[in-house]
Amino acid sequence: MELTTSQKSAFISEMLSSESGINELIRILLNTFSKQERSLFVQEHKGEQCNGFRPRRWRGYGCSFELRIPRTRSGSFEPLILGILSHQESERALLLHELYTRGLSCEDIGAVCERLYGHHYSKQQVSFLSNTSKAEIYKWLERQLSPHYLAVYIDATFAFTRREDSVSKEAYYTMLGLLPDGSREVLCVVNHPTEGALNWEMELKALKTRGVERIDLIISDALQGIERAICSAFPQSAHQLCVVHFKRQALNVVSKRDKAQMTQELDELFPIRDIGLTPIKAFEKLCTFAERWGKSYRSFLSLSSPRNIGYFTYLRFPEEVRRMIYSTTWVERLNRSYKRTLRMRGALPSAGAVVFLLGSVAREMTERTYARRLPYFQERSIK
């Protein structure tokens, strides 16, 4: 049946007056373009033959419909629409990954997709579509590393994790490395049920299998046995205990009326400016400080322990970098980013699910925030 131009215009206008009509018109146009594209392909390639159609679901912009993708006998023909569909699927997978790592639950993501694509995704479908992203994150976490790091910051954060029928807080170990060019990168995110020096020793040694040969300085908290773990894995590395942890613990012990004086003395005990103070002299001042305050607070007497000279390693380095190497603040900030992602969730179904979320945050920070080079850090200034 032949239609006049006015009849065609009236037909199109009627279809455009409703959402379902618009969707049907789009479907007809896409199918027609693909079929015409195949005809041109067959004409250009002698010996090729048409071979029917295969169905393909298209979703986007609040609509969903079935397309008929034309095929050829050899299977070498791919219409332009397939490239568009593939791009759309990769974009949708990226969107699901971004929403999931931003803290949205699988149910919330399904509702968002329903508004965008006109199709509701169940929790199981969201989880399945994110599997590709999980594989990429796990591969990134196991990548080869640089042979040399100026400094490595180590710390663990804790997250509720389900194992079989019980839920408990488990440790997730993170290492943040400072490269000779002044950029930073997250080296690992690893789960262990608890935090301990033996686990840290194992993870530090694991860095060697991924290409790390030398670390100039390792910064950590004062976990019992951490010195032996570091010495076993990287015996040539200097070790700095976190000064911020030390100050925080000292202030938690004293009464409210002594906090102001204690804060002032702690600032003098751990100077940033170069006043010619060596680690040994600074440790001697710490012993005097411990003896004096120990008369009022007996717990301060333990500060004279020889291991506490490790709080003053930063004095061996130039003044301009001391504030950035005398504590684990950088990796603690990363831990806070982890917690923001985990906050909207309860106990995650497995340790692998937690590692995936934390690894996603770590990769984003590495590729964006940590990629900026810090001008004060150069290979000559950290030695």
From TrEMBL:
Domain of life: Bacteria
GO BP term, example: DNA transposition
Keywords: DNA recombination, DNA-binding, Transposable element, Transposition
InterPro entries in alphabetical order: Transposase_mutator
Molecular function GO terms recorded: DNA binding; transposase activity
Pfam families from the UniProt entry: Transposase_mut
Key word DNA-binding present: yes
Function: Required for the transposition of the insertion element.
Family (UniProt): Belongs to the transposase mutator family.
Protein name in UniProt: Mutator family transposase
Protein source organism: Prevotella micans F0438
